[in-house]
Queue: 2 jobs
Job 1
Amino acid sequence: MTLRNLFVTAMVLGTGLSTNGVHQAKADDMMVYELRTYTAAPGKMPELQKRFRDHTMQLFEKHGMKNIGYWVPTDKPETLIYIVAHKSREAADKSWAAFQADPEWKAVYKESQKNGSLLKKLPERVYMNPTDFSPLK
């Protein structure tokens, strides 16, 4: 399965679908999806994945973010790509602020940085809305 197919599948899982597999987009119920790309520092991918697996995903949910999926591209093993869903863009901003202020996250982050940064560069993000023709397949 290609990264594009995984991405489309993840998008579909997080959207409300009609019986014909097409999202019936309404402004008041439009989920906002956030695609984030992390580039791990050399040798730090196992630690980065451990932080997500053991802490970050649960903290995202605690602060209103829905975990959709996580991937490592086959040709870029130092890259972690994931998608989270938010009820709206405003909800995304509130969730991120609450997440970053969370004392548990601050402790986890500090502990994960004790042997150097896990990231080679700052994460990239893209906010997305599903189209009215998002396919099931």
Job 2
Amino acid sequence: MSTRILVVDDEPRILESLVRLLEKESFDVVPARDGAAAEVLLAREAPFDLALLDVALPGDDGLTLLRRWTSSHPDLTVIMMSGHGTIEIAVEALRLGAYDFLEKPLSSDKVLVTVRNAARQARLARENEALRETAGLGKTIIGRSAAIRALTDAIALAAPTSATVLVTGESGTGKELVARALHDLSPRRDEAFVALNCAALPEELVESELFGHEKGAFTGAVAARRGKFEEAHRGTLFLDEIGDMSARTQAKLLRVLQDGLVTRVGGAAATKVDVRVVAATNRGLPAAIAAGTFREDLYYRLAVVPLAVPALRERSEDLAMLADHFLGTIGKSMGRKPRRLERGALALLAGHAWPGNVRELRNLLERLVILTPGETITEADVARQLPGVAAAPAVAPARVAESAAVPDGGDDDDDPAEESAPAGSLKAQLDAAERVALEAALRQAGSVARAAELLGLERSHLYKKLRKHRLPY
């Protein structure tokens, strides 16, 4: 497939010469004379692989467009051009994600070398993406952030080998998904993927689970049993929470990794196994080594390829994509239409710290799907379920608690703790009219954020008014 290139320059002579030059090299070239035309082409036509983008353009300049395209078209490789190039502009373009910077007057040879190299990189990126999708990796590890792309690229490189891999990351980040991706992308994909959580079993049973046991090896061993290593022969063995393994089991595991021989508990004969081991931990193993609770030689055996899974707070730009994915799969599993998050609800999710990471996000969204009657999950729905975000109180809080929760806007008329005005007074009539206006805005908007926009209020100011009138939000 020919590389598609978008060329953006407001000088007709340069634009025409670039199109001719690149078309001679069999590239599929589309010209645009300004940023507005370029963005129409990006939105309406088949995806472009590369863009040659001039810095000085009418309307939005090239650097402004580059900033926008980095988010809206992350797969587009951009080469910047300028006739008034400075070191500062070039550095800024590269910092924003440009592949390279070409200074005018343009050299045909320089243009072709740069474009060929960029096209090669774009092609490799497409092939890696196709490989991940073929193996299902694109369906399990969700995200387009730099951290996730670095992780998936490393997985694609490590998977075809038999090297042991140590996956590190906080609880709930998806370490088992990484292990399964390594298996699915490997030559072992048609063999067994076997998992064992080393922290979920008593110490005396871990050895039996790993290495198997012979009949009568211990009380309750009424028959011989294969261990996980034998079950995973020619496949992949995933050892989760490896940092909780006892010193005795660590020594036996090290021997298996060194010579590939497994001896069952209570047995004498060794069995040869061919197993690719992927281990995972949410503990700092170097600190455990320093404390004497984890073997240094085992650590280096396991960490031939170390892979770190980022916490959700470190890739917050993936949250919307993750939420959309989970809402789709949860709705499908429950036989319901996929729920939709309104903008205010997504903003609340984005502001959460997510100590439980992706697992916490999925669990929260499942709860919201179950407890939300409509097809839209609102900001108020999220506030009721998200830890640390208070829903509307049934009784107005004390003045000191309110001042800690919401910045003082200096509007004493909105103090929820003030006494009610006498019936029939102007104040009472104004309060009643205000309550009606607030209720109407909430019904129309469907969210506090949108209602604040309709009423022309700061959101914090609207929250104070809602508390004043004891209205739910």
